Prior knowledge:
Elements: H1 10-17, H2 25-40, H3 47-53, H4 60-68, H5 74-103, E1 117-128, E2 139-143, E3 148-162, E4 165-168, E5 172-174, H6 177-183, H7 190-200, E6 208-213, H8 220-228, E7 232-237, E8 242-246, E9 252-256, H9 257-262, E10 270-274, E11 281-292, E12 296-304, E13 316-320
Parallel strand pairs: 1-6, 6-7
Antiparallel strand pairs: 1-3, 2-3, 3-4, 3-5, 7-13, 8-9, 10-11, 11-12, 12-13
Helix pairs in contact: 2-3, 7-8
Amino acid sequence: xxxxxxxxxxxxxxxxxxxxxxxxxxxxxxxxxxxxxxxxxxxxxxxxxxxxxxxxxxxxxxxxxxxxxxxxxxxxxxxxxxxxxxxxxxxxxxxxxxxxxxxxxxxxxxxxxxxxxxxxxxxxxxxxxxxxxxxxxxxxxxxxxxxxxxxxxxxxxxxxxxxxxxxxxxxxxxxxxxxxxxxxxxxxxxxxxxxxxxxxxxxxxxxxxxxxxxxxxxxxxxxxxxxxxxxxxxxxxxxxxxxxxxxxxxxxxxxxxxxxxxxxxxxxxxxxxxxxxxxxxxxxxxxxxxxxxxxxxxxxxxxxxxxxxxxxxxxxxxxxx
Length: 321
């Protein structure tokens, strides 16, 4: 049954009030309708689907103009929700730091500094548009879910996770060089988008930030951007990347990660619980300090399910070393 916007819950009402300054009075009504529609809609999240969930007299063309033509700023909305998140998380971080200090054993001297870590995660996703013809930003992208190149949009997105709370970053549309030339837009690679977000991101006060990326974003540019902020970074490595081995006589050799992993003995692996000690599966991990080609010094971790059968996974992980 369609629900009028006067039926907003108290929690949702408090949330949307934080964004009132981002819209005019006319735009505000459409903003509330979109949010309520996204919550109530159990079918495809189309504009027609949203309108079927809301008992308000507005037209489909009016909702389309609000989303595509009216002059409200997505960047301003993003700054508002991130600032609200930072303000709400300040007392949560303080409470966590007090809990960590209380758990420290009593000893002479100053107590150790407590560290509360937030995780900044980046990834992209492809949205297939088989019937799209005149939509802006349409291009050819490889879809991992479909296993082929498709016509659609590629969205770059980020997520900030702190003490179980999540705050999304502003999404950006990635356009290929060909599409940028056709539409007259400046080209930015996915790496450029990630580096720009790292440069301008503002974490919650009195926290430490750890950046998580997959193998696509694993490059020197991202590592330098993270190190410039004084943070750490962990991410995937493809099995064909090369690592440096130094023999006892000082001879250096570059071999692929897959080649190195196949020569590991069962005693080279250590049993771990993945992904957490509370609820996870038993895996085996191998740590080695090495030098990754085109990355530099790295603490490499390789994981597998059965070291006796060398069933190691292609995605390895690293942290700055």
